[in-house]
Amino acid sequence: MQLTSAVYLLIEGAATDVSPIIKAVTDPFSLLALIVLVLGLIATKWVPRKQDGKAGPQIVALSILVVSLLAIALNVMRYINTAKPSVEAVQRPLSITINITSDKKTLKPTVVPFQVGGGQVNFGCEESAHPAVTYTVPNGARDVTAEAEWRNTDHAKGQTQFATVAGQTVIASGTITGPDRNWVGKCAASGRGELVLKGTYTIDQEKEPVQVVNTVAGFIAAGKEETFVIPGVAGSSATRCRIVVSSVAGEIASATVPLNSKVGVEKAKFDGPIKATWAKGKLTVAVD
Prior knowledge:
Elements: H1 2-12, H2 19-24, H3 28-46, H4 56-83, E1 94-104, E2 107-123, E3 128-129, E4 132-136, E5 142-154, E6 158-166, E7 169-177, E8 191-206, E9 210-220, E10 225-229, E11 236-247, E12 250-258, E13 267-270, E14 274-279, E15 282-287
Antiparallel strand pairs: 1-9, 1-11, 2-8, 3-7, 4-7, 5-8, 6-7, 10-15, 11-12, 13-14, 14-15
Helix pairs in contact: 3-4
């Protein structure tokens, strides 16, 4: 009976604020404990005591009540503990995005004309001249065309000419013949002419470079260095680098730095909220 009175006192003298108990009901087990608690209270209060002085039903109800109180108390403690903020927040790694901008060379097929003269040749009556003219096309030239012709001819009885291409060398050859002598064997005038070689070839010439952006993404911890390998783009040279560091809340630091690899300098170092060193395709980054 003293135990029953103690439980009644505990229940009747408890604080009226039962919000922690209600909030502790977060799963089926705590809900079942609350239901059993209520039923145990009803049973303890309303089950009559036997006349022979035995309190069997009340003891059973009281046992249910005590177990239910214990279950509710454990759930209340769990709610209180989980509601407390963590003393040490877990530090999440920062995300980092690296954009390397490069100037990529572009080539455009271009048809280039050429022309070269062999200089004037002189010849007499019934004489012939056999000049030759050569021209060398640059490396990488293709689709070479060639033609030979005589120009500025005078007192020529006849001429022939032809052009050939042998590898990178273009050759023009020709023959020009002077007039016949007169009936008394004299030459009225000497002749002249110039053999000219002309033609075209196709070659790839550089246009304005096209900017190419190469992106690398990863994670970095504050206060630690990380090295990122930036894949190169064939036929290009890095000109600038942009680094953006973000947390779950958004961007926290960024930096844009020019790189001077065009003039043969492949190292660039910059400090600030972001510290980084660029050398030969590798970027070492640290975030304060």
